[in-house]
Structure formats: structure tokens, C-alpha cells
Inverse folding.
């Protein structure tokens, strides 16, 4: 089954690149949702079936694949934005940067002192690549919504790394992390709504205007 | 033997004749006669030189000459070997072609500067021969300086123009910065070996105290002369503003002297640190991609060719880097194919770039402009030049059946073979880079050829262009035939480089045969012949078919518009706009859009477009600007009062005296 | 010997049928009957019988363009293995020559377009060379990945190497390669979503606008060359994507022909359900394809 898990991880990395290359917010929200669903399937592939596992799978798919994307989608709908207009770095360049980062994460994973049974799997490079993609989205995009997506991608990266430790990681920890994120996104959503109502723009580069002189 | 002399003697004779060739032109009353004597002498010298090359390739040993001179740097040493041969072959061939070409291109009957130009041209070539045969550091530096300075005088032939003055200054600064690095390098070499004579090859250990510094200074000094990025900044301007046959020599030959210097320096060491190969490989790849990207955006014919020289130097360095990396990793295919590719490309670039620069001279002569966007339709009025230029363009794009493909084929095969079998998977990444460079080269040269020669003339001068004379076409035809012959039967090129690869890469003969058998030379010949035959057959069928049918002539289909004018054609700038925008970060096109004023009838407005020379415009110019501002304070020290100057001298002496005690 | 004869016969006669199948598929999607499958052959015969009109601006380059393009493409056909049989002409390193033959044909197609002096054809030529330049690294990444897997530089070995077993073992990278190859196939042959062969506005065309001025036999040669190119890249794609082999040579040929037809139908479906991309979007998609293939190489290298 681990071969199939590897293919899914390749898909996860491809979705990273898709998110870097697209300008349409709705599309990248959908992409992040698909990524979440894939991440939900993954634990089921590498661990023997159990009730605990079924719970985790259902929870992850529900949270990452449905609830969070729905909330962000709502925010996008309310703020009436469709596209990331002018990123700090162009799409083709970020795409190429993303590819370079992915390659680097493979090189980096080679260097890590991993347990031999994890060495041949794609989990570590995929997780680092996803983490770096998240950083890239956070640093290059202007819109607050894109930043939220960036956080989500980063969290996905951490989650992939955590999959290696499922045996050791109690469900509560993962649930706690998810809850953090959920609350974070609620707060973000509320703040975004307020900002867009007050300033008719949610461009983070203009948030400087809020600074006291 | 039926050769009267041995190779080194031939070479030194040739160098002497070359150096003296321009002197009659300076002394004689009839300058035209002097120029003809010079051309004759240069051709004789080139033939002598080629005899030496043939001898060396045939395996005859070269003598070692030692001349005691009254200078305190040890005796002057001359010799030659396989590494020198590979540079001497294009050197003599192109020099001979250029001297004949200059009879028609820069005739003494029309140009008053011809005497000076002829003199320095001979000196320039002689200095390059000396650079290649010198075996003593000081002698080498002297030849190097003569070469650099005669190149300066050659490129500032049209010194009235302010653009020429500017690029001359930039060139002088660049070359002397490089020479400074070389001074450091040879001093360090002297302090390790105790003499200025070149050490024998593979004699120095990499653990020597100054090894790293020697390699770095060599990379800076020679790399700058070769036009390796980021030290290429002097190159486009210098090549563009020199007379075309001088550009041909500078680009086809002088840049290679930098490559020679690096190769010679590296050959001193028995083993090199691992980073050297990778640094050279990366610099090469960077130069190749950036050079051709810069070339794509150019509007000036010769500037475009100059930028493409940076690309080709990059390809040569990719080959050298692959070989060095291969030596470290014990990957024989990389060593053999990388070195063969680099050396073949050195010869090839000498041939086709000289052909293209000579062709651009014919164009400037015929159409009176260097601006690509002002030409057009020249193929009708200059059929010979246009055909030769097409040969050069196909060759430089590395397309079969011409010679440019052979060198690149070696690099591809080397990198992929060792990339797919175990040792160095990273080397395989060279192939996509070369593919990208090849694709950009096609864009650049389709633009160059298409906009200049095809379509309708865009200016009156282009419409009245005329074909060049026989003296100009003859050398170009010779070069084009060389390109075609080397492309059709690549074995010729391989035979040329076999000894040097064995000598330089320390590769045994059977290993060479084994590795180079991976490169499909015989099939390539077969495919090339097949390609030509197939083209001829299809062409014949097509022509026969055309004979038998009606062929009405009309205007070009303008999509419904019936009165097309030449100004409606796509220009070179518009042709490359798409790719220049994609390469925005490298090329950084600057556009000043016109501001429309006037209420009903708009006033005149101007649109300005230029490609940024990043290193020169963004880095060096501002730095020198600030340095200039800083020194303007120092200038206050110079106020013309003699006794204060004496005070300066006294103060300096005083400080020095205190320093020593 | 039989294989070489079949190879040449299939490669020379089959390509225009692909265009017919694509047309028929699109017609079926649009609810029309469509032109007969053999229509491209009728077109070619008609064109070869016609006279030609030449623009006064053109030179010999204009006449040489289609001829050189066709001969370079014909040699490329000889290098490609079809239906799990080695190509008639195969040697180590032929994959590089293969890529450069396309470069040669592109050079001549585009200078022939510039020879007319029409701004529309100049525009088409500029787009053609630019987009092909972006496709070239993808092609090389793909070939190197396969070369690395098969440890060979010969196209015949490289392209016959993929088998169902390989697909099971290295499915992810094979999938990436197939994706990259399909994009390459569509882009190099100027199909939707890169270029619409049937569009009526010259400003939006790429390939069609370059050949506006060619007429009669020359245009026939160009159409035939384009079909051949579609066939070649299609064959590369089919070799990688559908590696079915029975061991019986004739059955393998039949499988190959059927697979090519299926590919034509697939292209027809893509053309029916997708719209042409905006021009500024095309480089993005091509760079995406390059990344896909580079990613495949990365997976194979580790």
C-alpha cells in the first residue's frame, strides 16, 4: 500500500504547484480542500484499520476538506474578490521557485538522519516541500485570504510529517492543532470581514496605514 | 621530412611576419599598396602557421626555444603543444580570411585610418600567437598586454564617435582589471615554483598554500577576457563598435585566449579542488542562458552577435566544467565528452562567429546601418551574403547538418550518459539547460535572419543596398565551406581534438575511443547526407510540379488589407517582445511610453526602448559614479602650485622613512 | 524487413487519417455529421493539383521552407519506434538528433513565414519559436527520465522500455511524464488549448497564420508535414502511455494503430470541451509542463 501512498504524496506536491501557479482564489481553495482530503486518506493507507483510525480519517476529511474550505470560501464570497491581483513575485517565477524548493526538499530529506523504514518513502520530502510552499504563498501574495491559504498549506506540511509518527501521536494532539487552526481561521474571517467593511480593501500591504505615526 | 622547419619555428616565423606586416603600410607613400603587401604577408604567415598546426596534429614533436633576454625574469621560453594547437588552428584561418576581407571592407584608398588599422591587426594576431606559445609568465603577460592594447586601438578606430570612446574606456578598464588579477596570479605562481617559467603540466599539488588563490585570480583575469558572466560587461559594446572584421577577430579569437589561459592554468595542477569544476559549470550555464537571453532582446546587429558570443563562451565553459567534475567523480564519459565538446565548440565558434561578423560587415557596407529594424529584404539585393549568413545562423543555433551541432552533441551525450548511469545524476540537468539555450538561439537567429534579409526594405538605405565585392565574399565562402564540411563529416573535428583531449584530460587512447564511440558520429554523417538528399528530392519534385502549373504573382495576403507598406511589417523588436517579456528578470527591457499632448491634433511623441545591461548599468556605472564623487574631493590636492607638490613628495618620503624604522 | 516496410507504410500513409478522426470527433460533439474520415487525403490530393500564388516579396527561402521542414520531419519519423518495434534508423544518442531535427524544421517554417513580410505571419512566427523554446526543456526532461530508467540513449530502447510492470512500479513518475508529454503534444502541434486550428481571426492564431501565404503544393506539403509531426509526437506518447505488447508483431501493429486512433479521439474530445487559453496563459502552462517532467526526473533520480 505504501506505493499508493507515495503516488498520493506526489499528488500533494503537484497540488502545491497548482496553488502557486493559479491566480483564482476559489480555485486554490478547492485545491487546498482536495489536498486535505488526500491527507485524510493517507493514514488509512499506512496503518492497519482500527476505530481510532476511522475517527481520525473522518475528522481530518471533515475539517480539512469541507469545513475550513467552506469557511474561507464564504469569506471570499462576502469580500467579493476573485483573483489575487498583483502578487509580489509573478506566477511563473513563484512556480519556478516552488519547483526549486521541491527539489531542495528532496536533497534535504536525503541528509536527514531518518529511520531506515522511512528512508525510501516520500513523506519527508513531501512534508518539507509543502511547508516551503506554504511559506512561499505567505511571503509572495498580498491578499489576506491568500495568506490564510498559505497557513493551511503549511499546516498540511506539518501534518504529513506527523503521519510518520501516527503510532506515537495521540489523537488529542492532532485534534488540538486542528482546533487551533479552526479558531485562527474564524478570527481571520471575522477580521477580514471587518477590514473589508471599513477600508473596502483587504490588501495586506495596505495594512501599514493602520500603523500609528 | 619535407617540412623544412619544426612547428615552433614555423609559429615564431609566422608571428614575426604578422607583427611586421603592417609596417610597410605606415611607411609607404601609397597606402593601398602597403595594405596589399600586408594582406599578402598575413596570408603567407597564416599558411605557415597552418603548416605548423598540421605538423603538430601529425604528431611531430615541438622544440623548446630559450632566448636569453636582458630582463631579470629568467629566459624567454617558447614552445607549443596540443593545447596550443587547438587555438592556433582557428587563429590562423580567421586571421588570413580577415586580412583579405579588410582589403575591400576598409580600403586604404577610402579610409585614412587603414594604415594604423592594418598595423595593429597584424600586431594583434602576432600577440595572440605569442600568448599561445609563451612558456614564461612575464613573456606571457607582455604578449597579453600587447594583445589587449592593440585590441583597444583597433576598436577605437572610429574614435570621433563618443559611443566608441565610451566603450573603449570600459574595455580598457575591464582588461586592466583582469591583467591586475593576472599579475597577482603569476607572482603567486612564481613564489610557489621559484621561477617565472611555466611549471610542467600536472606538476603542482592542489594542497599548495596559494593553490586556491591562483585558481581564483586566473578565473577573474582570464574569465574577464573570455567574457564569462558577470565579467562580460565590456563585451557587447566593444564588439559592436569595432570595425566588423576586428569584431570577428575579437569574438572568434581573442575571447578564446581567455579560455586558453584558464585551461593552461588548470593544467598546472595535478588534481583540482571539487568546487572548481562546479563553479566553472555553473558560471558557464549562467553565461549561456543569460547571454542568449540578452542577445534575443538586442536591436543592434553586432551587439546581438556579441551577446551570443557570451552564450557560446558559456557553452564552452559548460564543457570544461563537466570535464573537471567528471575527473573528480571518475566519470570517464564526462571527461572525454565534456572536453571534446568544449574544444570542438572552440573551433566551431571561431568559424561561424567570424563568418557572421564578416557577414555583418558586408551588411553594414551594403545597407549602411547596424539597426536590425531598419533593414529588411536584403536577400534580394545581396543573395551571396544572405546565403552565407543563413549557413552561419544555422550553425550557431547548433542545427544539423552544420558544425555547431557536433560540439553540443558531445556535451549532451556526455552529460546524459553519466547522468543516467550511476556516478553523477546532477550532470543530466545540463541537457535541459542546453535545450533551453538552443531554443532561445533559434528565436534570436530567426529574428536576425528573418528581419534583416526577408520581407521588404524598411528604409531607403536598405532598399539600395548592394552585394559585397569578391574580396569580402571569398573569405566568407571559405569559412562557410569549413562550417559545412565539419558539419557533414564531424570526424574531421574529432580528429582535430583527439590529441588535446588525451593530453589535457589525461585520457588513455582506448578510453577515448570507448567514450567517443557513444557519440553517434558515423550515423550523424549518414543522417546529414540523408537529410540533404531527401531535401533535394522533395525540392526537385516540388519544382517540377511548380513548372507544370500556373504561378500568378501578387502582393502578400494582408488579411483583407490591400495596401501594405514596409512599415507595417513585424520588426525585430516586436518579434522578440513575447520572449523578452518572459525573460523580464534577466533582460529587464526599459520602455519609455510616449506621452500624448495636444488637444485635437496630438503633438510629436517619442517611444524609447532599450535592454538593460544589468552589470554595467545597474552595478558598475553607479559604483564608478560614487567613486568619482569621492575622488572629486581628492582633486583639491591638485592645484598647480609647485612648492606644495614638493611638500607632498617630502611628506611621502618622510612617512616611508618612519615606516621602515 | 517486414517491420521496416510496415513502419514506412504506416508512417507515410496513416498521419492524415489522424486529422480526419479529430475532425469527426469534434463534429460528433457539435452534433454535426462532419467531413468524411478521408477528407484530409482528398484535401492533399486537391492541393497537389492546384497552381500556386506567390507574393512578390518572397525569395527562394519561402519555397525552401516547406521542403526542408518536410524532409527533417521525415527523418524524425525514421527514428521513432512504432508499435513496439525498433525504428529503422536507431543509434545511441539519436534522441538528441530527434529534438534538433524539430529545431531545424521550426527554423525553416518561421523564416519562410517572415519572408512574406506580413505582420500577421511575423506574429505567428514569433509565437511559434517562443512557445517551442519553452517546450524544448520539457521534451528533454521527459527523454532523460526515460533514458535514466532504461539506461540507454537510443530512442528505440527508451520508448519500448515502458511496460505495464514499470507502470506499476513507478506509476507516479510515469503519470507525470504522460501528463507532460500530452501537453507537449498539444503545444507542439498547435492544438487547443494552445492554438485553435479552426479559428477565423488571424490575430489569435499561431501555426495557421504562419502559413497563410503558402498555396497549392507547398500548402499541401505543410499540411502533410503537420500531420506527420502530430503522428510522431503521438507515437512517442502512445509508446509511453499505452505500453501493451503481446509478442505477436502483427497484433502489436494493430494495437498501435488502434491506440493512435484512440489518441486522435482524445485530442478531439479535449478540443471539444476546452476553450483556447489566453495567450499570456500559455507560457504558464508550458512552464507547468516543464515542472511536471522535471518532477518526474527528480522522482526517478532519488
Amino acid at each position: 500500500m505504501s506505493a499508493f501512498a507515495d503516488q498520493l504524496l506526489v499528488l500533494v506536491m503537484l497540488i502545491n504547484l497548482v496553488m502557486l501557479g493559479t491566480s483564482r482564489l476559489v480555485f486554490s481553495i478547492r485545491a487546498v480542500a482536495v489536498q486535505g482530503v488526500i491527507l485524510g486518506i493517507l493514514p488509512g493507507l499506512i496503518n492497519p484499520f482500527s476505530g481510532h483510525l476511522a475517527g481520525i480519517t473522518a475528522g481530518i476529511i471533515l475539517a480539512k476538506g469541507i469545513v475550513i474550505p467552506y469557511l474561507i470560501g464564504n469569506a471570499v464570497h462576502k469580500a467579493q474578490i476573485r483573483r489575487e491581483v498583483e502578487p509580489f513575485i509573478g506566477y511563473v517565477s513563484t512556480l519556478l521557485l516552488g519547483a526549486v524548493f521541491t527539489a531542495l526538499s528532496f536533497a534535504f530529506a536525503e541528509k536527514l538522519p531518518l529511520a531506515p523504514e522511512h528512508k525510501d518513502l516520500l513523506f519527508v520530502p513531501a512534508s518539507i516541500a509543502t511547508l516551503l510552499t506554504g511559506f512561499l504563498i505567505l511571503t509572495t501574495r498580498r491578499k489576506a485570504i491568500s495568506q490564510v491559504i498559505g497557513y493551511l498549506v503549511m499546516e498540511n506540511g506539518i501534518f504529513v510529517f506527523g503521519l510518520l509518527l501516527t503510532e506515537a501521536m495521540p489523537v488529542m494532539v492532532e485534534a488540538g492543532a486542528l482546533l487551533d487552526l479552526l479558531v485562527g481561521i474564524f478570527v481571520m474571517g471575522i477580521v477580514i470581514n471587518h477590514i473589508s467593511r471599513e477600508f473596502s480593501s483587504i490588501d495586506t500591504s495596505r495594512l501599514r496605514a493602520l500603523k500609528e505615526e | 621530412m619535407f617540412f623544412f622547419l619544426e612547428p615552433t619555428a614555423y609559429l615564431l616565423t609566422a608571428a614575426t611576419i604578422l607583427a611586421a606586416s603592417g609596417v610597410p603600410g605606415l611607411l609607404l607613400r601609397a597606402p593601398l599598396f602597403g595594405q596589399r603587401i600586408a594582406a599578402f604577408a598575413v596570408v603567407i604567415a597564416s599558411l605557415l602557421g597552418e603548416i605548423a598546426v598540421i605538423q603538430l596534429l601529425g604528431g611531430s614533436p615541438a622544440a623548446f626555444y630559450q632566448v636569453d633576454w636582458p630582463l631579470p625574469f629568467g629566459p624567454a621560453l617558447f614552445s607549443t603543444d596540443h593545447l596550443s594547437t587547438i587555438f592556433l588552428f582557428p587563429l590562423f584561418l580567421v586571421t588570413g580570411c580577415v586580412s583579405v576581407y579588410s582589403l575591400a571592407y576598409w580600403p586604404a584608398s577610402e579610409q585614412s585610418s587603414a594604415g594604423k588599422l592594418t598595423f595593429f591587426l597584424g600586431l594583434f594576431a602576432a600577440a595572440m600567437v605569442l600568448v599561445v606559445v609563451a612558456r614564461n609568465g612575464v613573456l606571457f603577460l607582455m604578449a597579453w598586454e600587447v594583445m589587449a592594447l592593440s585590441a583597444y586601438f583597433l576598436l577605437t578606430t572610429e574614435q570621433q564617435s563618443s559611443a566608441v570612446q565610451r566603450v573603449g574606456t570600459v574595455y580598457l578598464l575591464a582588461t586592466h582589471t583582469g591583467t591586475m588579477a593576472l599579475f597577482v596570479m603569476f607572482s603567486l605562481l612564481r613564489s610557489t615554483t621559484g621561477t617565472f617559467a611555466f611549471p610542467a603540466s600536472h606538476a603542482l599539488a592542489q594542497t599548495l598554500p596559494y593553490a586556491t588563490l591562483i585558481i581564483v585570480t586566473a578565473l577573474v583575469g582570464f574569465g574577464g577576457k573570455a567574457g564569462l558572466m558577470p565579467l562580460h560587461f565590456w563585451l557587447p559594446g566593444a564588439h559592436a563598435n569595432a570595425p566588423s572584421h576586428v569584431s570577428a577577430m575579437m569574438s572568434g579569437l581573442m575571447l578564446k585566449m581567455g579560455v586558453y589561459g584558464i585551461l593552461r592554468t588548470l593544467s598546472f595542477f595535478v588534481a583540482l579542488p571539487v568546487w572548481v569544476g562546479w563553479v566553472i559549470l555553473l558560471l558557464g550555464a549562467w553565461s549561456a542562458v543569460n547571454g542568449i537571453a540578452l542577445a534575443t532582446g538586442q536591436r543592434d546587429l553586432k551587439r546581438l552577435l556579441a551577446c551570443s558570443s557570451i552564450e557560446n563562451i558559456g557553452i564552452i565553459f559548460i564543457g570544461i566544467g563537466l570535464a573537471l567534475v567528471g575527473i573528480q567523480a571518475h566519470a570517464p564519459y564526462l571527461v572525454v565528452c565534456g572536453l571534446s565538446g568544449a574544444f570542438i565548440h572552440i573551433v566551431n565558434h571561431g568559424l561561424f562567429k567570424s563568418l557572421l561578423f564578416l557577414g555583418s560587415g558586408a551588411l553594414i557596407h551594403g545597407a549602411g546601418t547596424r539597426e536590425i529594424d531598419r533593414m529588411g529584404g536584403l536577400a534580394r539585393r545581396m543573395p551571396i551574403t544572405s546565403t552565407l549568413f543563413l549557413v552561419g545562423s544555422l550553425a550557431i543555433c547548433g542545427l544539423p547538418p552544420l558544425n555547431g551541432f557536433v560540439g553540443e552533441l558531445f556535451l549532451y551525450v556526455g552529460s546524459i550518459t553519466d547522468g543516467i548511469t550511476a556516478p553523477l545524476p546532477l550532470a543530466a540537468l545540463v541537457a535541459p539547460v542546453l535545450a533551453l539555450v538552443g531554443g532561445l538561439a533559434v528565436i534570436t537567429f530567426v529574428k536576425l535572419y528573418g528581419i534583416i534579409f526577408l520581407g521588404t526594405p524598411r528604409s531607403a538605405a536598405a532598399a539600395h543596398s548592394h552585394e559585397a565585392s569578391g574580396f569580402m565574399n571569398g573569405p566568407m565562402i571559405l569559412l562557410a565551406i569549413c562550417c559545412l564540411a565539419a558539419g557533414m563529416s564531424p570526424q574531421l573535428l574529432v580528429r582535430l581534438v583527439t590529441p588535446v583531449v588525451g593530453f589535457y584530460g589525461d585520457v588513455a587512447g582506448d578510453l577515448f575511443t570507448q567514450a567517443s564511440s557513444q557519440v553517434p558520429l558515423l550515423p550523424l554523417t549518414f543522417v546529414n547526407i540523408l537529410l540533404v538528399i531527401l531535401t533535394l528530392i522533395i525540392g526537385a519534385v516540388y519544382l517540377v510540379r511548380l513548372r507544370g502549373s500556373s504561378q500568378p504573382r501578387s502582393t502578400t495576403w494582408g488579411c483583407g488589407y490591400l495596401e501594405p507598406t514596409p512599415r507595417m511589417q513585424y520588426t525585430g523588436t516586436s518579434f522578440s517582445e513575447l520572449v523578452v517579456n518572459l525573460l523580464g528578470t534577466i533582460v529587464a527591457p526599459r520602455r519609455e511610453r510616449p506621452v500624448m499632448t495636444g488637444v485635437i491634433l496630438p503633438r510629436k511623441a517619442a517611444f524609447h526602448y532599450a535592454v538593460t545591461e544589468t552589470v554595467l548599468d545597474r552595478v558598475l556605472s553607479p559604483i564608478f559614479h560614487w567613486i568619482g564623487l569621492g575622488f572629486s574631493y581628492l582633486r583639491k590636492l591638485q592645484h598647480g602650485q609647485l612648492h606644495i607638490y614638493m611638500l607632498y613628495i617630502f611628506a611621502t618620503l618622510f612617512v616611508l622613512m618612519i615606516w621602515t624604522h | 524487413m517486414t517491420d521496416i516496410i510496415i513502419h514506412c507504410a504506416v508512417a507515410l500513409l496513416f498521419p492524415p487519417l489522424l486529422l480526419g478522426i479529430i475532425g469527426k470527433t469534434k463534429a460528433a460533439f457539435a452534433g454535426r455529421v462532419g467531413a468524411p474520415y478521408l477528407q484530409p487525403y482528398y484535401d492533399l490530393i486537391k492541393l497537389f493539383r492546384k497552381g500556386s500564388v506567390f507574393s512578390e516579396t518572397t525569395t527562394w527561402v519561402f519555397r525552401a521552407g516547406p521542403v526542408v521542414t518536410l524532409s527533417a520531419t521525415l527523418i524524425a519519423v525514421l527514428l521513432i519506434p512504432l508499435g513496439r518495434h525498433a525504428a529503422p534508423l536507431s543509434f545511441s544518442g539519436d534522441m538528441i538528433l530527434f529534438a534538433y531535427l524539430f529545431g531545424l524544421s521550426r527554423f525553416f517554417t518561421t523564416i519562410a513565414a517572415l519572408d512574406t513580410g506580413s505582420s500577421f505571419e511575423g506574429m505567428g512566427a514569433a509565437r511559434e519559436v517562443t512557445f517551442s523554446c519553452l517546450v524544448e526543456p520539457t521534451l528533454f526532461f521527459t527523454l532523460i527520465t526515460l533514458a535514466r530508467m532504461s539506461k540507454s540513449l537510443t530512442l528505440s530502447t527508451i520508448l519500448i522500455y515502458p511496460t505495464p510492470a514499470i507502470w506499476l512500479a513507478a506509476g507516479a513518475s510515469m503519470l507525470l511524464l504522460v501528463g507532460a508529454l500530452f501537453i507537449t503534444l498539444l503545444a507542439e502541434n498547435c492544438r487547443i488549448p494552445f492554438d485553435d486550428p479552426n479559428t477565423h481571426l488571424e490575430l489569435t492564431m499561431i501555426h495557421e497564420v504562419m502559413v497563410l501565404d503558402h498555396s497549392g503544393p507547398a500548402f499541401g506539403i505543410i499540411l502533410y508535414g503537420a500531420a506527420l509531426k502530430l503522428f510522431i509526437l503521438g507515437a512517442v506518447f502512445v509508446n509511453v502511455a499505452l505500453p501493451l505488447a503481446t509478442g505477436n508483431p502483427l497484433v502489436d501493429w494493430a494495437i498501435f494503430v488502434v491506440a493512435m486512433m484512440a489518441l486522435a479521439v482524445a485530442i478531439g474530445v479535449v478540443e471539444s470541451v476546452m476553450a483556447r487559453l489566453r495567450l499570456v496563459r500559455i507560457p504558464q502552462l508550458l512552464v507547468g509542463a516543464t515542472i511536471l517532467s522535471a518532477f518526474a526526473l527528480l522522482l526517478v533520480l532519488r
Remarks:
- Strands of chain B lie at 65-67, 76-78, 553-554, 589-592, 608-611.
